[in-house]
Amino acid sequence: MAELEAVIGLEIHVQLATRTKMFCGCELSFGDEPNVHTCPICLAHPGVLPVPNEQAIRYALQIGLALGCEIAPHSIFHRKNYFYPDSPKAYQISQYDIPIASNGKLGEIRIHRAHLEEDAAKMIHVGESGRIHGSGASLVDFNRGGTPLVEIVTEPDLRGAAEAAAWARLLRETVRQLGVSDVNMEEGSLRVDGNISVRPVGSEELGTKTELKNMNSFRFLERGIEAELARQRELIAAGGTVEQETLHFDSASGSLTPLRSKEEAHDYRYFPEPDLVPLAPSEEMLREAREALPELPAARIERYQSELGLAGDVALTLATDPETAGYFENTLAAADGAEGKVVANWVTGELAAALRQADVEGGATASKVTPESLAALIALVQEKKISHGSGKTVLASLVTEGGDPAAIVEREGLAQMSSDSGELEAIVEKAMADNADAVEKIREGNQKAIGAIVGAVMRETKGRADGGEVNRLIQERL
Amino acid sequence: MADILDLTVLEAHNAKMAGEFSSQEHADAWFEAASSDELNAYLWQNDRGAEAAAIEVEQDWNAPIAVKDIFCTEGVPTTAASRILEGYRPPYTATAVRQLIEAGLPILGKTNMDEFAMGSSNENSAYGPVLNPWDRERVPGGSSGGSAAVVAGGLAPWAIGTDTGGSIRQPAAFCGIVGLKPTYGAISRYGMIAFASSLDQCGPLTRTVSDAALLLAMLQGRDPLDSTSVGIEGGVSLPDREDLSGLRFGVPAELARDAVDAGVREVFEATLRKIEELGGEITEVSLPNAEHGISAYYVIAPAEASSNLARYDGVRYGMRDGGDGDLIEMYETTRSEGFGAEVKRRIMLGTYALSSGYYDAYYGQAQKVRTRIAQDFSGAFADVDFVVTPTAPSVAFKLGEKTADPLAMYLNDFFTVPMSLAGIPAISIPAGLAEPEGGGPQMPVGFQIAAPAFAEQRLLDAAYALEQGIGFDARPGDANG
């Protein structure tokens, strides 16, 4: 049988961090006493009407633009009709055939659409499992009902569980940096569902997909998709076929169980919401949304790799931490002529380690090490005025007390030993004499043995010697 | 106090200004009159009486008012004449009603209606039909039958109702009063219990065109709580036009040729002659798609209703039945017991029309017809100032006469539905009396005038001039002795 490849699309619900709900003036909340943030509108009393939240529209525009989408000049709200206690109107106001944003791309993954809608109320099933089956009673908390949501739907462009989880992280970081959502998976402000199928490698057709829900962390998202891909592959290997269904991922047991599917049970009878006029963002709103866009992770990764020559993982680390990325760029600007790669390694490597070591919270920007002092330190090392090891020593002092690196070098006597003075040669010769067996081993071809001699020189010089220079002197004398 | 009750609101205002009686005396007289409702026109009356509803704001037009029970009123029972909302007291007040209260109008009571405004005879009320004050064996029309009956029957000086496909104009015609359906968007719908959201519009039911203008002036306006409301630019003022010279009135050929009772046709034609006497010009216009209005309306309105009425599930307010079983059983029992037959019929029609696979053939097609009808009117208004028709094909029919035949009932809306679909304003004014087919005492006949969107002022001005020219002054009881 042909090898099967994974075909994965994601549907992401992002709760917008507006002050009030999508269609009424109730405040958003998390963890408050149930049913305190309600009003006749979000409880669907007779006669009430929805009024769209302007801030939610602005946030949705930013998401659409950040995902490289086209913004619809007139998008339409529809009613999605279904009976369920989490929906007091018995319909959800959503967008259907004309969403606010469509045809975008994030990284290599195409975005099918992003649309605005309202969240359902929260159902609390009383009983051991916390799920509806077997529960004694179900309670409804309308605090969440009507929270603004943007639903983002990708094309089925993802080819594996790890890729899907990594892309979802990039999406979360993108939305987080827009400042439009808390994007907290555990609290449900970011919810990711997967549409999963497999097909023979080389095939263009899509296999029958299943929808995977309830993956409330990136780890579970990856594990859930892996489990479902394995299930589908086994099923097909055994001669079976995949059936379209919605599956619930149980993170504790790793098991997948079918969920009663709304799609199967209902015809949503979509029709244009007559209580709302078409959503037509003004030129000004679009301009403001564009201007409010920061440089987003995908663009930053691209720029760091192509313009600064940073390694992929370093670029990713910086792009997903915009504060540190800003710090890095300030340091780079101050470090006249230093290579981006070198500065990036200092910021994400030595400085991050030194901060961890000293238990400094809040990252580089909150530390006593200014970008200018780090730049000065890097220059001292680059110009071989101090050794790399001494650089780390200076950095440790900068982290604890701040100050000027050159002054610290002076005070601590860390200036690099020059080979001109003959002092370093003497130390090297002594170290070789003291480690005669190492010298013997090197002569026998074991280059690793040089470490013992270098170590002895470094101990003697308290790290002030340049490692490359020490190596050269040893080789000369062999 | 009988003389006070004979006055229109405008006349009473002038009398108050002349010091003949106070606002309080005026209100007291009406509260007393309203308490003797024998027409089943009120579902709830403000039993605190005029005393409690004392005039607190000394405003110009603070005559007490009757409000159709479709408007939410805080703390006051609001049922839309449905069992399913039995016991419901809304936590808020509809914008239209709030504006009236803020203008100083005491609320006399909530008026009976067809359940959820679905009906043309008021026989679909869960609380029994309203009787027509001209002949208690006849219907007052619907769905705003209670609001029309209280104004015609001397139980309120004026009232508000709602019109989705004729629900203000047809009962106004059946009861011999003025009924105005404003342009869609002229008055806030916030707090008006929704039947068909893209068609529902609040409007006045009054004794005269002037009173309709006064009430519209207080009701209209853009409401931040209703995204579809825009108000009427420039507001509304009292009409004062005395003739119709220079105005062109179009009679749609397509609507005229359909079955209209002889008595109604006679009054309609006499009214056309009156228009010419007043200097107006009568021409024929073409509304080629208007005759499909009823078909489109009875797809669109039930479709929206099926969604609007889905919230009545027995969970959060109103009636609940079957609560001992599971959730689905409770939903089903509550809705089976709570809704009347006509409401259920329309929910089923509408659900079907929106179903996957049928949407394009029904809802989609009906929306296309709606667009065509709106275009027909735009075309007609290029040639004429107004389009005129009889308001209804007959005078008020007898109770029970059409209840067995929903289609015959729906055809009552034949002349009023096209304007609703086009969203344009239309007014019905009493134009004369006619003997019903099959005999009986003479009943009022309504004359409908429609105008382009937001041309309410021109519409009221012309209707006022015509009203003065016709001089209709019959009252219930006159003809019957």
Give an account of the 3D structure.
The complex is a heterodimer of chains A (478) and B (481). Chain A has three domains: 4-290, no CATH class; 295-412, no CATH class; 419-477, Arc Repressor Mutant, subunit A (Orthogonal Bundle), CATH 1.10.10. Chain A is 40% helix and 18% strand. Chain A contains 16 helices and 14 strands. Chain A has helices at residues 54-66, 161-178, 218-237, 262-265, 283-291, 297-306, 312-319, 322-334, 340-357, 371-382, 388-401, 405-412, 423-434, 436-443, 450-461, 467-477, and strands at 4-15, 70-71, 77-81, 91-95, 101-106, 109-118, 122-126, 137-141, 148-154, 190-200, 210-213, 246-250, 255-259, 271-272. In chain A, strands 2-5-6-9-1-10-11-12-13 form a nine-stranded mixed β-sheet. Chain A has a three-stranded antiparallel β-sheet with strand order 4-3-14, with no helix packed on it. Chain A has a two-stranded antiparallel ribbon with strand order 7-8. The radius of gyration of chain A is 30 Å and the shape is elongated. The model of chain A has no long low-confidence stretch (mean pLDDT 90). Chain B folds into two domains: 2-254 and 265-287 and 383-470, Alpha-Beta Complex (Amidase signature (AS) enzymes); 290-373, no CATH class. An eleven-stranded mixed β-sheet of chain B has the order 1-3-2-4-6-5-10-11-9-7-8, sandwiched between helices. Chain B has helices at residues 2-6, 9-17, 23-34, 49-52, 95-102, 145-152, 169-175, 209-219, 253-256, 262-277, 293-308, 327-338, 341-354, 360-383, 406-410, 417-422, 456-470; strands spanning 42-45, 65-68, 107-111, 158-163, 178-181, 201-206, 248-252, 281-285, 386-390, 426-434, 443-450. With 481 residues, chain B is an alpha/beta fold. Chain B has 17 helices and eleven strands. In chain B, helix 5 links the parallel strand 2 (65-68) and strand 3 (107-111). The chains are: A alpha+beta (478), B alpha/beta (481). Chain A binds chain B through residues 40, 43-52, 79, 81, 83, 85, 88-91, 138, 267-271, 274-277, and chain B through 71-72, 78, 80, 85, 88, 90-92, 94, 189-194, 196-198, 224-228, 303-304, 306-307, 310-313, 315-317, 327, 331, 351, 354-356, 359, 363.
